[in-house]
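DATA SHEET
Item: assembly model
Revision: 1
Owner: S.N.
Input lines:
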Amino acid sequence: MLPVRKEIVTRIASLTGLPSPEVEASLEIPHDPKLGEYAFPCFPLARRLKKSPQAIAAELAEHTWVSEHLERVESVGPYLNFYVHRSYLFKTLLPQILRAGPAYGTLAEGEGKTVLVDYSAPNIAKPFSVGHLRSTVIGNALCRLYRALGYKVVGINHLGDWGTQFGKLIVAYRRWGDAARLLEEPVQYLYQLYVRFHQEAENEPVLEDEARTWFRRLEKGDPEARELWEHFRALSLEDFQRLYRYLGISFDSYMGESDYNDQLAGTIELARARGLVKESEGALVADLEQYGIPTCLLQKKDGAALYITRDLAAAIYRYQTYSFDRMLYVVGAEQTLHFQQFFKLLELMGFSWAENCLHVPFGLIHFKDGRMSTRQGKVIFLEEVLKRAVELARETVEEKNPTLPDKDSVARAVGLGAVIFGDLINDRIKDVEFDWEKVLDFAGETAPYIQYSHARICSILRRAAAAEGASGKASGNGEATPQELALLGEPEEEALVIAMAHFSEEIVRAVRDNRPSYLARYLLELARDFNKFYHNCPVLTAKKELREGRLQLVAGVRIVLRNGLALLGIEAPQEM
RNA sequence: GCACCUGUAGCUCAGGGGAUAGAGCACCGGAUUCCUAAUCCGGGUGCCGCAGGUUCAAUUCCUGCCAGGUGCACCA
């Protein structure tokens, strides 16, 4: 409903003399539909005009507001409430939604701008746990949301394919490794070796030294170390890509930590040239105390670079390559300090674009009795979660809809949807307690609830099309006439068209705060509105003219639900 | 010790400085000769952690305190 919103903002600004952005910021959507579709609180004007907000609202309401969009404007106490023409919503906007189809909700406000999204970034040789799911799912949703606003988006998977853990893996593999088992399930097996290393290292501390030695050999290009590393990396990457394909996620770049090895020395020189580097206990550090940030380590005393140096090198490379307007790092909140140090260093190194780099943090996933730990083997593997969710969905489909064709792909969409949505529904900053019952719940505030609403609409439209033949409107031939649309007006119908009208505003809001949860909540509400409509307003058995109108209405809802779920990386099956 | 995040219904959580603080789960009851009951309807709850402050207005912003989580030099 952006044209309406703009019209209201412009009018209020010119009538009151308030700057548009200020009006825009205070314009709200009332909680009660009786109070209109938009509301403007007049309190801020009271002091300036030396009148009561009630009087100001009353005066503003006297102006001529009626337009193509606005039916009436009323003052209720200190508020100015805006009522959008029902005929505009039903007869103009609804057909627009149907014509736009998959494009409905998209905008062009990001046209010409490039956004980089760094997300997922699993560690080679460490299996995907439910902890990695958050970055992956949030990052993927953000990519899609930015694209919907017209931004050019580059999704980057900054693979954790370098670091001392490879020394450990090499040691473990040389001691206890089995080539055949490695080929069978690479990531799982490497992970077992990794856990075993930490167990054995408790009694045999020499292992740690050995691991450091092997990592140093790897860094120097030792052929044996190099060969093992490449082997581990290639096998793991294949494993990950299988998982991404399953989730329907793809990246524009897989450049990982190891790809910046030859730029690390230069990066440190760049920092040194700015006087940011000093030696301390044999290591290289950057002192940021004067900015209220703890000193950070750039290079270990053994000469090995640390990940902040890799991040610096990668950021510089990325700016040279993409000249991005914004770069997001979808990384856990426990790394907040790292990003403070990292961004401050970029700024001090003279890169003005550092201010366009943003850490998008999210909370930890933990168990009732404490946090997950890769080293201790206290994790839940994502594959297991997905498998169980899809299995349960499969059983549910079998029970509820035994004649459904292609049950497997429906079960996959529903099971994965439940897991993905469960991760996006809440504010990302909050910690999450992992709970099987909740993950495997398909009722209430879940993706299956939304998918079910969508499937019901599909079912209505399918039956309508079958009843009227292939030339009918429900088959996509022609639109309902204005006369037919004019019959819409039940409260349930109004709620739907109003909710649909707000779709792109929600996308804008989600992008503004990098919070996909806004969109997830919105879709839940739309689905709830639809289910109410479904129970109170029969479509197929309604009189012909009303039926045509309602068919168009639910076709619109279908578009918004489907487009919205797609933005979250969730499929909407036709039946379930 | 210092820094950051979180504290709202029994539980999990929404809540854009503004109108009467809302959902889901759980619990109880009801709805299917009718478009998929993965649905809908009804039933009831709140010192919005505590104390100050800013403001015409604070669950929302600021400060302090309390509780939980996370981080703070050779992991990422």
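QC remark: The radius of gyration of chain A is 28 Å.
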